[in-house]
Amino acid sequence: MKTVLITGGTGLLGKGMEETAPKGVKIVSVHLRDYKVPKGRATHLALDLRDKRAVDRLFERRRFDAVVHAAGLASVDYVETHYAESLESNIVSTLNVTAACRRAGIHCVYVSTNAVFDGKKPPYAESDPVHPVNKYGSLKVECERLVQETLEKYTIVRPILMYGWNRGVTRPNPATWIYEKLLKGEAVELVDDVRENPLYNRQCGEALWAVLRKRPSGIFHLAGKDSVNRWKFGLEVAAAFGLDASLIKRVDSSRFPGIAQRPKNTTFSVKRMEDELGVRALTLAQGLAAMRAEMREGA
Ligand SMILES: NC(=O)c1ccc[n+]([C@@H]2O[C@H](COP(=O)([O-])OP(=O)(O)OC[C@H]3O[C@@H](n4cnc5c(N)ncnc54)[C@H](OP(=O)(O)O)[C@@H]3O)[C@@H](O)[C@H]2O)c1
Fold it and tell me: Peptide bond before 123: cis, by omega within 30 degrees of 0?
């Protein structure tokens, strides 16, 4: 494994991969908008993956030993209200990337999501049937099918709700959003009827490097050890960073009628991740403590 292409590498997952990359591996990271990415391990390129010619040129000019395809619109509410744009962003980009991988015989790791499930029968194993409840989940199911039906060398990973320090240029995640609000002394409302086992982004990075080392086929669920609702998650963030938990108000999803439907409980089984990738799931307290340690490192 010498050079790995990460599409969507400026996101939280890409940052987790950069920060856990094995020595000697070169990372080329592609993102869409033309901005300067804070310094890290990767070489960052701005390139629109919806543009087939641009993708083909990238693969002609550089030799990749593996590809992690994580790019695409991934905001559940944005996808629900901007479906045509989201189709292009997810389906067309995935078509272009998988076609290039197929031609060059490169192993492709497609990054999917827990939103492929309806949340009615947790915990979810990799073999459970998919049944999305929103447009984002439906798009990711289609991308998974595309990968499964057109590639021989592939792995599908499904990370669950991720948390960790993001870059200044990328979207906040639940931990950084709650942290910022509480730090400013602002109240937050968090639902108690949506539940997952959240995943620390550096642990996601470690699991992806294990996938790239072992190149297993099939699907892998990537998640933390503790299944918590969003309200409990907020309380844990407040405790980990010594912030005022009394600013957190417990509500349920009926408080936010305008947003896309969420699956209620998509808690994952982490058995395959632990047994076959050799990655032991972190508790939420361990993940948040690692985030706190990153702060001290000045990450
Ligand atoms: N974050 C989570 O909690 C979570 C949970 C489950 C699954 N996932 C999946 O994990 C993957 C990564 O998520 P993330 O949160 O790390 O990413 P993210 O913050 O949503 O960032 C998306 C990335 O895709 C890039 N991108 C979007 N459209 C593109 C295009 N047409 N051409 C090139 N690049 C494009 C963006 O570039 P710009 O920075 O230039 O916009 C950015 O680098 C996604 O596939 C998502 O579905 C995420």
Answer: yes
Q: Using the Cα atoms of residue 36, residue 23, residue 156 and residue 57 in order, give the sign of their dihedral.
A: positive
Structure tokens at 79: 């996808």
Cα of 169 vs centre of ligand 1, distance in Å, is 12
Please list the rounded mean pLDDT of every run of 10 residues in the chain (299 residues): 94 97 97 91 96 98 98 97 97 98 98 98 98 98 98 98 92 96 98 98 98 97 98 98 98 94 98 98 98 82
Which residue has tokens 């702060």? 295
| Mutation test residue for ligand 1: of 44, 78, 89, 113, the one with most atoms within 8 Å of CB | 113
Pocket flag, ligand 1, residue 230 (CB < 6 Å): no
Contact criterion met (CB below 8 Å) for 284 and 198: yes
